[in-house]
Every structure is written in structure tokens, then in C-alpha cells.
Amino acid sequence: FVASSIADRALLSIARMQTEMINAIDKICEAKNPLLVLSFEDTVLRPQEAIEQIAKFLNRSSTRRTKKVLRRQNLPRTQISAGKATSSFSFTSSDSTSEAQTYKTISAEISASCSKRAIAEFKAAISTYNSRWPSQLTALEKIWI
Questions:
Q1: To pair with 60 at 20 to 30 A between CA atoms, which of 16, 29, 105, 123?
Q2: What is the DSSP string of 39-106?
Q3: What is the phi/psi pair of residue 81, to 5°?
Q4: Distance between CA 127 and CA 117 in Å, rounded?
Q5: Which residues, 6+ apart, have CB-to-CB distance to 50 below 8 Å?
């Protein structure tokens, strides 16, 4: 890991942290402790449903402030990749760019700057995520350049 490039470290960190996160989720569930898991994709596309799930889980109701935060974060999104955080530090997408085109662009950039070993581990992490939390992005996994 230490000898890896910065780009490889980013991919490997994401993949390995995801493995740890999934293991922790599984342990919490095996111990029958309460845990609410929400997928990122569902949350940004249908935030009201996510808020209702959170409110029910916590036995609380949402507030007007919750609605303000959603507005400030431009939620719900029309596309998963159209987030504020993403546009401020990496790529930008617009409503005219499809999720598939955004995915192709990102995967091409990763393929050009990372090693095959790091990409393979990252792709395995994507596959694991997609099998646990399927979304409209799941089908895009197959178009990696």
C-alpha cells in the first residue's frame, strides 16, 4: 500500500474501508442490534423516503430544518452524480449528461491513472456494493472501459 501511487491508494482505501464497513454492518446485524442502512443512491434520488425511514427508526419526526437542508443540498437529485460535493472537487455533470456517460468518463480517468491491481480491487468493491444495495447504477458496472 505504501509503495502505491496516490491514485492507487485512493482506490485501495475506498475498497478496503468498504470491506470494513460491510463487516461492521454484518456484525451489528448478527448481534441483533438496531441498525438502519440506507443506500446513497436511494437517499439522493428519494430523500423524503429516507427521511421517513430515519424518523421511524429514531421514533422522531422530521422538522422544517430538515426540508431546508434538503433544499440547500439540491435534494432530490435528478441524477445520482449531480451532487454539490462532487462538483466542487472533481468532475461535474449536468442534466444533459447521462449517468452512463458520467460513469464512462470517471472509469476512463481511473483506468488511465491507476494500476490494474488497484482497479481490480476497486471493481470487486463496486460489485460487492451493487450486490448488497442494487440501484440504477448497478447496470453501469458492466460498461467499465
A1: 29
A2: -HHHHHHSHHHHHHHHHHHHT----HHHHHHHHHTT-S-SSTT--HHHHHHS----TTS-HHHHHHHH
A3: -80, 5
A4: 15
A5: 38, 42, 43
- Tell me which residue of 141, 129, 44 sits closest to 100, measured CA to CA: 141
Interval 13-70: pLDDT, tens = 999 999 999 999 999 999 999 999 999 999 999 999 999 999 999 999 988 899 899 9
Domain segments of the chain: what residues?
A: 1-31+92-145, 36-77
Give the DSSP H/E element, type plus range, for residue 31.
Answer: none
Cα gap 111→105, rounded to integer Å: 10
**Does the pTM exceed 0.90?**
no
